[in-house]
Amino acid sequence: MNQSITACAFLHKNGKLFIAKRADTKKFLPGKFELPGGNIEFGEDIIAGLKREFKEELDLDIIVGNPFYAYTYVSGDKHVIEVDYYAELADPNVEIKLNPEDHSEFRWVTKDEVDAVWNKNDDEYKAVEKGFVLLGVQ
User: Fold this and answer.
1) What is the pLDDT of residues 26-83, one digit of tens each?
2) Bridge partners, 106 (sequence order)
3) SS3 54
4) What φ, ψ does residue 98 adopt, rounded to 5°?
5) Structural domains in the chain, sorted by start
């Protein structure tokens, strides 16, 4: 048994949320849309790790805001603690280029489009709902 910490970002722009679809070749949750982020390395600052994951997987520089949601889940023999942060693009006009090993597509979704992406019982759905509410998006 082991534990890991994951940081993900509610990356928003103009009232929309950036989501990315995990590549079909991924072992964990292939083909699922997600809040991008990833595992924090041992001894790594959580915000620095989140920025690193965005740079590695999406070649994006982000400005990380406050954490707003946290939850845990078990995957195989691993207990995962996920912390979700607000984030914005460092350059709002940057061209987004996906690494096909990590993600197959991305979307900017409105609050109304979230139901088509996640099951309401999914913890990430709950995080996204709270994220939009705290942003003041009805």
Assistant:
1) 887 788 999 999 999 999 999 999 999 999 999 999 999 999 999 999 988 999 999 9
2) 20
3) helix
4) -80, 145
5) 2-135 (3.90.79.10)
Question: pLDDT for 83-100, tens place per residue?
Answer: 999 999 999 999 998 888
d(CA 26, CA 102): 7
- Cα atoms in the Cβ-side hemisphere of radius 13 Å centred on 55: 11
Residue with tokens 């929309």: 16
Amino acid letter at 56? E
β-pairing verdict for 78-89 and 33-34: unpaired
Strands 37-39 and 2-13: antiparallel
- What is the spatial distance between Cα 137 and Cα 15, in angstroms, rounded to a whole number? 7
How far is it, in rounded angstroms, from Cα 60 to Cα 94? Answer: 8
> Which pTM does this prediction carry?
0.93
Q: Which residue carries 């099951």 as its tokens?
A: 119
Contact 17, 10 (CB under 8 A): yes
